[in-house]
Structures are given as structure tokens and as C-alpha cells.
Specification:
261 residues, mainly alpha, two-stranded antiparallel sheet, 2 strands
């Protein structure tokens, strides 16, 4: 039987969000005066490059071979279904973030897409909402919410396994682990289906876009700088666009290895 929200639980979540926001306002590193907005603020470059070397080694020895084998073995139609299923299960979190941003229209549209795809689309395996001409979702996340609230981007960070990020986005990733209502409504193991589907979708992307990603990680003169530039451009475009849309870019499998943005 599914779990229900209690008033006390909701108040705790709200308090946690406020605390996180306050800590983020105080903690994100401020770029020095005159810093160009066109480049990443990267005061931790030495450590970031060590983390990048670890991530590349992890990709070479595990992520790339598993992703390539997965994509070769699994039919394209099934890969697409898993990706749609993963995206659908992430929509409730986007609804929460749209509400926090004051984007009620976006939250309503996302809710409608979730209901339609979860029913007519058979739990999201099929994109019935798009077939019914319901606009694309916001893909809102808590890092975007912090941006709307006026929190600065902070320094660029490369996270182990997760890859390129920023101080603000890192806080967002942590909070987004707790903002999906399905986490509290569903029991185990149903409440981890979304994570499993996201990992599968990530492996699919790594296999499908292997040539492009390999050209960045293994053929570019400076793969760290290349990955950093791609992440900053992609993320700032998403935030500047306002609607939450991102580039339709194969580099997303590198920039966003487990579908966290």
C-alpha cells in the first residue's frame, strides 16, 4: 500500500528547502570583479582535473563498454520506451520545482502530461501527450529554481561519476533527490524504478552517441576544458531560455550521465 504525505512531513520538506536556499545564498563562491560571463569560473581547476581524470578512466573501463554493449544488444524501440518511462517518472519533481518558481502554467502542463502519459501512454512507455498536442514539459529542477530565486551560479565543479556541475547545481542535485512526490507515495521497490530507468537511459545514450562523446573525451586536445565549456553553454542556455528547454544535443550523455538535469 502506498504511503501518504502527512502535514508534518510537508512542513519538514518546506523547512529543508528554505534551509538549503539560505545555505546556498551564503555558500556559492562569488566570481571576482571583471570575470567574463562567457567563461566558467573555475577556482578549483586543479582538483577538478583530477576528478575529470577519474571520470574518464571510469568511462573507459566501465561506462563506455557497458553502454556500447547495452545499446548494441537492446532494440532501439525498447531503448526509446525506457527513456520515455524514465522521463515520465521525473515529471512530478518538475511540477514541484515549477510551483516553487511560480510557474503555475508550466506546473499545470506538466501535471497534464504526466496524467495522460501515465494512463493513455501506459505508465509513460509511450508519449501519448505529444500525440495529443500537449506541449513539451518544463524539465524544471531545483538548480533552476535556485537560479529563479536569485542564487548565483558559483564555481564550476566536476563531480565524481556525475560529471560537470556548479556549486548551485550541485545543491540542486541533492535537493532533487527529495522533491519527487513519488518517492514518498510509492513503496520499495516501486520508488526506485525511476532511478533504474534513468541509469538504463544513460547507458543507452552513451552507446548511441559513442563516436561523438569519444571525440571529446579521447580525441580533443583538452577534454576537461571541452567538457566544461559544453556544460556551461548547455546549462546557461537552459536557464536563460526560461522554459526549461535544453539543446537537443548528443553531448548530453556526457554532460548529464544519469539524467539529472
Amino acid at each position: 500500500m502506498g504511503k501518504r504525505f502527512s502535514t508534518n512531513s510537508i512542513l519538514k520538506v518546506k523547512a529543508a528547502l528554505v534551509l538549503v536556499a539560505c545555505l546556498t545564498f551564503a555558500g556559492c563562491t562569488k566570481a571576482p570583479p571583471g570575470q567574463s560571463q562567457d567563461v566558467a569560473f573555475d577556482p578549483y581547476e586543479r582538483q577538478n582535473r583530477k576528478t575529470h581524470a577519474f571520470n574518464v578512466a571510469l568511462d573507459r573501463n566501465l561506462y563506455r563498454p557497458v553502454g556500447t554493449s547495452y545499446s548494441d544488444f537492446v532494440p532501439d524501440e525498447f531503448e526509446d520506451m525506457i527513456s520515455r518511462f524514465a522521463e515520465n517518472l521525473s515529471v512530478p519533481s518538475a511540477v514541484v520545482n515549477s510551483v516553487l518558481q511560480g510557474n503555475i502554467r508550466g506546473a499545470a502542463n506538466d501535471t497534464l502530461r504526466f496524467v495522460v502519459n501515465s494512463t493513455a501512454g501506459f505508465f509513460g512507455f509511450f508519449d501519448a501527450a505529444t500525440e495529443m498536442n500537449i506541449p513539451a514539459g518544463t524539465q524544471a529542477d531545483f538548480g533552476q529554481t535556485l537560479h529563479v530565486w536569485g542564487v548565483r551560479e558559483g564555481a564550476y565543479i566536476e563531480l565524481p561519476v556525475l560529471g560537470p556541475s556548479s556549486e548551485r547545481r550541485t545543491v540542486g542535485i541533492i535537493v532533487d533527490l527529495f522533491t519527487n512526490p513519488l518517492t514518498y507515495i510509492l513503496d520499495f521497490p516501486e520508488n526506485v524504478y525511476g532511478t533504474a530507468a534513468s541509469v538504463s537511459s544513460s547507458l543507452s545514450n552513451r552507446g548511441r552517441f559513442s563516436d561523438t562523446i569519444d571525440s571529446i573525451l579521447y580525441e580533443s586536445a583538452d577534454s576537461y576544458a571541452q567538457a566544461r565549456s559544453l556544460y556551461i553553454q548547455n546549462r546557461r542556455f537552459k536557464l536563460g531560455n526560461g522554459s526549461g528547454g535544453e539543446f537537443d544535443d548528443p553531448y548530453d550523455a556526457l554532460i548529464n550521465p544519469i539524467g539529472e538535469e
